[in-house]
Design a protein that fits this description.
There is one protein chain. The protein is an all-alpha fold and 337 residues long. It has one domain (3-319). It has helices at 3-19, 27-42, 47-71, 76-90, 93-108, 112-118, 132-179, 186-189, 191-215, 223-233, 242-253, 281-314; strands at 260-263, 266-269. Helix 1 (3-19) runs antiparallel to helix 12 and helix 7 (132-179) runs parallel beside helix 12 (281-314). The radius of gyration is 20 Å and the shape is globular. This is Cobalamin biosynthesis protein CobD. Belongs to the CobD/CbiB family. Keywords: Cell membrane, Cobalamin biosynthesis, Membrane, Transmembrane, Transmembrane helix.
C-alpha cells in the first residue's frame, strides 16, 4: 500500500477544487520559461533536434521528481506534502471550469469582444470575427478535450508513478502546447513533443470517455448517447485522443460538435461528432458540470488505486515476489511518488 502518495493525491485534488491554479509564480510557467530559453539555443529545423530537446526537458523534470520522491522515502508525512504540492501544481480542472464560465458570462452579457479575448485561455483557434455560436462550440470542445489533458491524465500518471509521473506528464503536455503544433517553425522540431503527448494521453483520453459515459446521468445526460457517439465518432477527429473525449461529451449532452476551425492561416474542417444540435450558451454550463463530475470521479479512482495497488506499480520487492530479500526499515523504491 502507498497511503502517503494516496493522501497527497487527495489533498492536492482538494486544493485544486478550493483554490484552482496558483496565481503567482506558477511552477508550470517557470518550466515554460526554462524550456523557451533552451529552445532558443538548440532549435534546428529537424526532428532529431526536437527529439533531443523533448528528451532533455521531460527527462530533467522526471529526474527532479524522482530525486524529490527519493528524499522523502523515509517520511510518509513529507511524501504526502510533496505529492499534494505536485498534484495541486499540475492539476487544472478547476481553472478550466472557471475559464469556461467566464466565457459564458461574457456571452450572457452580450460582450463579444471580451468573449473573443477569453478564447485564447481555452483554445488555440483564431477568435477574430467569431460569433457567439462558434465561441460556444470552441468552449465546449475545449472543456471536453482538456478534461483529460488538465485533470484526468495527470491524476492517472500520479496514480501510476507518483510525483515523477505528475511532473513528467505536465512537462510533456506543456511542451506539446508550446512546440507541438503545426507551423513553419515547429512542423519538424515539435514532432517528438506532439507524438509523446499523444502517447501519454492515449489511456487517459479513453478513460475520460469512459468516465463521461459513467457520469452523464449525474448531470442529466445520456450514458447510452455518450457511449454511442464515442464508439462511432471518436476516431473521426484528427487527434488520436481528443476526438474520444469530444465525441463522448457530445453524445452525453445531446450535442453536435465539429466544424471549421481557423488557426491563424491554417483552416481545418472537422467532421461532426454526435447527433444533436450545435451547442448554445447554456451548454457551456452543462459541459463544465459534466467535466467536474468526470475528473472528480477520476480523482477518487486514482487515490483508491494508488492506495491498494501502489506497491505493485512501484516495483516494491513484496509486490514482485522477492520475499526472500529483506529491505531496510522504511525503504521503498527510489523515485516512488
Amino acid at each position: 500500500m502507498d497511503i502517503a502518495t494516496s493522501a497527497g493525491l487527495a489533498l492536492g485534488t482538494l486544493a485544486d477544487l478550493a483554490l484552482a491554479d496558483p496565481r503567482r509564480r506558477h511552477p508550470v510557467a517557470g518550466f515554460g520559461q526554462a524550456a523557451t530559453a533552451l529552445e532558443r539555443r538548440v532549435w534546428r529545423d529537424s526532428r532529431a533536434a526536437g527529439a533531443g530537446y523533448t528528451a532533455t526537458c521531460v527527462g530533467t523534470t522526471a529526474a527532479l521528481g524522482w530525486a524529490a520522491a527519493r528524499a522523502t522515502r523515509r517520511s510518509p508525512a513529507a511524501r504526502t506534502v510533496l505529492t499534494a504540492a505536485a498534484t495541486w501544481t499540475v492539476l487544472g480542472g478547476t481553472s478550466l471550469g472557471r475559464a469556461a464560465t467566464v466565457m459564458h458570462d461574457h456571452l450572457a452579457a452580450g460582450d463579444l469582444p471580451a468573449a473573443r479575448g477569453q478564447l485564447p485561455s481555452l483554445a488555440g483557434r483564431d477568435p477574430r470575427g467569431l460569433a457567439e455560436a462558434e465561441l460556444v462550440r470552441a468552449t465546449v470542445e475545449s472543456v471536453a478535450e482538456n478534461t483529460s489533458d488538465a485533470a484526468v491524465a495527470p491524476l492517472f500518471w500520479g496514480a501510476v508513478a507518483g510525483v515523477p509521473g505528475l511532473l513528467a506528464y505536465r512537462a510533456v503536455n506543456t511542451l506539446d502546447a508550446m512546440v507541438g503544433h503545426r507551423s513553419a517553425r515547429y512542423a519538424r522540431f515539435g514532432w517528438a513533443s506532439a507524438r509523446l503527448d499523444d502517447v501519454a494521453n492515449w489511456v487517459p483520453a479513453r478513460l475520460t470517455a469512459a468516465l463521461t459515459v459513467l457520469c452523464a446521468p449525474l448531470v442529466g445526460g445520456s450514458a447510452a448517447g455518450a457511449l454511442r457517439a464515442w464508439r462511432r465518432d471518436g476516431a473521426r477527429h484528427p487527434s488520436p485522443n481528443a476526438g474520444r473525449c469530444e465525441a463522448a461529451l457530445a453524445g452525453a449532452l445531446g450535442l453536435r460538435l465539429g466544424g471549421r476551425n481557423a488557426y491563424g492561416t491554417r483552416v481545418e474542417d472537422r467532421p461532426p461528432l454526435g447527433d444533436g444540435e450545435p451547442p448554445v450558451r447554456a451548454d457551456v454550463v452543462r459541459s463544465v458540470r459534466l467535466s467536474r463530475a468526470v475528473w472528480c470521479v477520476a480523482a477518487v479512482a486514482a487515490v483508491s488505486s494508488r492506495s491498494v495497488l501502489g506497491d505493485r506499480w512501484s516495483g516494491h520487492p513484496r509486490a514482485i515476489g522477492l520475499r526472500g530479500r529483506r529491505s531496510r526499515p522504511g525503504a521503498s523504491r527510489a523515485g516512488s511518488g
